[in-house]
Specification:
8-stranded parallel β-sheet, about 290 residues, disordered C terminus
Amino acid sequence: MIRFGMAQWQHPAWVDWIYPRSEAPSSRLGYYARFFNSVEVGSTFYTEVAADQIIKWAALVSSDFRFSFKVPRGISHQLNEIPFPQVLQHWQRFQDLLLPIQDQLGPTMLQFPASVDVSYLDKISQLCNEWRLPSSLSVEVRSLSYFDKFEGEASLLRVLANGQYDKVVMDSRPVFSTDAYCESLVEAQRKKPRVPCHAVATGFSPVVRFVGHPDLERNHFWLDQWADKLLMWLEEGRSPTVFVHSSDNIAAPTLAAWLDDKLDAKSDRYAKRLLLPSQHDQIGLF
């Protein structure tokens, strides 16, 4: 099956669409989970999240919902700043934090900055080998040395495939397909990595992070490509997760629904999954 999710479960522009205005922000995860069966949790990347908070989140959703937590940047972004044994200790503590909700974990995302090039591959491999939870681990790299279609990329793919670790495929092509003519594109081009989109699966649960363009109609070209790739992965017995972003994330649910429609149109064996409420008036402003 394919799981769809957003980079967050609440957005001011989703009020009166994904969830009613009357609901408190603390209840919005439950409403979000009526439509999507996964979500990226970026808060663990930026700050410490208490164990009881994670358990409270898990209690708001059904047992078939999956959380994809980002690994703290103190692990992924400080490989050259603190002793590696200390990094491994942080790594174990993070896994202990997730252990109580292990049955509701989707792919956990270990995201490395552009400064972590192929010279760090041994450390990446060690971190992967120290993954002890039963859910999948997905690795996202941003150094261009891993996209050379030669030994750098091949070495990474071998490490991941040999351990059945998954690869995060970042597709930021849409937001870099035009000049940054609006504020949301300026922000997206500043924050999102501009890396080649090499859609290679190394494990059973590949992760796609698609970042859509604010001119929504432009996205059909790339969504059609992803529909074909996702159907191929399903035929291979894989279970991909697709996290859909847009330049400001307002229209991300719409783009996810469009991708779901394309999958449904291209395959008689695919059952449509996303049944969003009628789009509210703001969508027409994009």
